[in-house]
């Protein structure tokens, strides 16, 4: 069980953390024909927008209630009302996902009350659901916002149901999964003859496709009619501990039983997933997955030479940190530095002795001597200074192509991830070999310290 | 009325602003504050603007006092370069939590400043106020005063909370912080009769380094840039300059005007984008410096340099003329870049099918009309959907814009070149315009366009079927 070390600094240096409202906004971006709306000053939206555009390389519909100093103090009902009407008129979305921010929460805007009053006065909003996620910037971080938005959607949109559709499965997807991961999960579920309702489904909206039209709301994602049928499913599979509250609420409302998968990478987790789908569908595991399992075993055999006893530093959102740490532990590597941006229940189960709640300065301070850094693109400065290779994981990854399609779940995803990481280790070994001379070997034997390796750190602008 | 409110009101009736000069007395008094439309707004906040303007001071620690959103969601995202110190690229924030909101964030801010000085020891700390602490009443200026006195390092309050207004207003509020607390607090080691300030030059992707050799060759010393690749001491001793060039249109006009008033530093508005514009800048600054006591041969030497550099640039552009002649450009930018880029593109034979006048002044508009001979292709706003339609219907061969509209062009399968502040190519100076044209050429002639426009085999079958149905 990992020991959690809370940060004591007053100053966060090189933030790892991102805010809860934009986490919530991304969850709403996984809905079809949706517009997330941040209730705050316009900068809150602009920063989130730029962040998502840089990561996904896609147009991002994201709006603001454009609060000023005066409207903040007087209360934001009028701004919310105007924003909803304007968005309705311009985009006519199926869903507006409203997320509060620091100022409107500190002021104490009663958004629930506002929404009721606005709905009563504006019949023209009919046909557009408005879901509110309370997300003060000063509490929690990105994944907390995501979880709150999904919980709010379950609460507001899923009706109770007496019907059961035995072949229908709900997937509640954590924010650490990529569109590529979600595609793989859907394909796997369908391969057993089941159908999946994924909430939220950014593989529909942010997978980088070329739409036929250009409209100011999301084009693809979970459809409203599907959300409304989630109470009829045979099972809810929550992926990531962050999805547990939403899954439990769904169970409480509809009686659909829940199974939480803390991760979906690694042989054991994938086996459990396959066994569950097989039980549920009463179908045998399709032969292609048996083949993929065998390929994963082979990848583990080929790869373990390069992973064994490697020291790895990881800084990531809690569920991603959990999944990555166990991936490395499964392969014989050691996570000697683990940093999370904010606290979460799953952190005690991370495969490391300690988990720091902190920033990328803490990461840099404790990662010295590691063979690999794993974090989002903001880790590039640390990597350059430490001279340690950086493997990019998580959001934002703005200096690599194809991040939406990066696949690390399932047998196939785990297999390819072993290859990707193993190749980085192999590259280091090669660089290391070039430094070996008879003299250095003798020095090693006495000093027991490796010669300095000029690792190909990936840095720069 | 709060001090911040008074300051904002004074900035909104800025007398140096060309837009304001064009207004009636009554309209001018009303200020230029445009209320934002909830649900239909785009663009950054005042804090964003202040940070953009000041972060290029490279040896300073930039500390954002606010919840994680303000810095955590945005840091290290601008491509302004430094010739040495990297302190400005470190993200510092107080990351205010619930406890700070309840009890006030002043103590955390003070401790954060101390931690930075202990660990980094920068020549100064800039502290950015944001909405949440402004709302709960944190006295950032008081904390900065106390910290400066205690630690002996200048701690500069930048009072531009996001909800004060737009990004442009924030640029100016950032400028005010420099005027109030930095400019004039130090003396240069020495002065020359050819010392100048550049106001509103941010060294995006290092593009100022394409211009600096021109000044160097003429013996003109850039005492301070506001704020590209600037050091704290440069800004602090910038009041000894003999003249200034104001770039980037209106962003930091308050600095230019107030330094003229306070320190008698005359300035003019210029641009480093476009061949004629760079030459114009060099001519005007040479004249201005001679008036201020520079050697009398400076203008003549400038002419020699201009003739040589213009000839070189045109020779380099010659290569592109045949390739780009008649290609249609949709230009979606704002302010000064609209006309300086228009003139350059027309010189290589490209046709401008549209240019946006967002953020542009009356003078900018007049210049576009002068250059294009018509205002028929000017538009104030172009909603993404409309932009997409224009491109989809092949009304333009290439679009030039900021990153925000990049995907409108790409989804319409249209070549696109980035020209705003997030750009990756240095566009300033004589070399800059050649770079821009080279980028356009590279985008237009990439072989992917024909490929991605090719319908899938099944789509071709559908088209043919529809075709035969018509004939039948």
Automatic annotation (TrEMBL), chain A:
InterPro entries assigned to the protein according to its UniProt record, in alphabetical order: ChlB/BchB/BchZ, Nase/OxRdtase_comp1, Nase_comp1_CS, Nase_Mo-Fe_CF
Keyword line: Nitrogen fixation
- Check the record and name the Pfam families matching this protein: Oxidored_nitro (PF00148)
Instruction: Using the record's annotation, list all stretches that form the Nitrogenase/oxidoreductase component domain.
Output: 19-425
Q: In which pathway does it act?
A: Cofactor biosynthesis; Fe-Mo cofactor biosynthesis
Q: Does the keyword Cytoplasm apply?
A: no
- Superkingdom of the source species: Bacteria
Q: Which family does it belong to?
A: Belongs to the NifD/NifK/NifE/NifN family.
In UniProt terms, what function does this protein have? This protein may play a role in the biosynthesis of the prosthetic group of nitrogenase (FeMo cofactor).
This protein is called Nitrogenase iron-molybdenum cofactor biosynthesis protein NifN
From TrEMBL, chain B:
Q: Keywords on this record?
A: Nitrogen fixation
Question: Where would I find the Nitrogenase/oxidoreductase component domain in this sequence?
Answer: 45-444
Instruction: State the InterPro entries in the record.
Output: Nase/OxRdtase_comp1 (IPR000510), Nase_comp1_CS (IPR000318), NifE (IPR005973), NifE-like (IPR049939)
List the PROSITE patterns: NITROGENASE_1_1, NITROGENASE_1_2
Origin superkingdom: Bacteria
Gene3D superfamilies referenced in this protein's UniProt entry, alphabetically: Nitrogenase MoFe cofactor biosynthesis protein NifE, C-terminal, Nitrogenase molybdenum iron protein domain
Q: Has the keyword tRNA-binding been applied to this entry?
A: no
**Pathway(s) of this molecule:** Cofactor biosynthesis; Fe-Mo cofactor biosynthesis
Function as written in the Swiss-Prot or TrEMBL entry? This protein may play a role in the biosynthesis of the prosthetic group of nitrogenase (FeMo cofactor).
Family, according to the entry, reads as follows:
Belongs to the NifD/NifK/NifE/NifN family.
* Protein name per the record: Nitrogenase iron-molybdenum cofactor biosynthesis protein NifE
- This chain's source organism reads Aromatoleum diolicum
Ranked from the top, the taxonomy reads:
Bacteria, Pseudomonadati, Pseudomonadota, Betaproteobacteria, Rhodocyclales
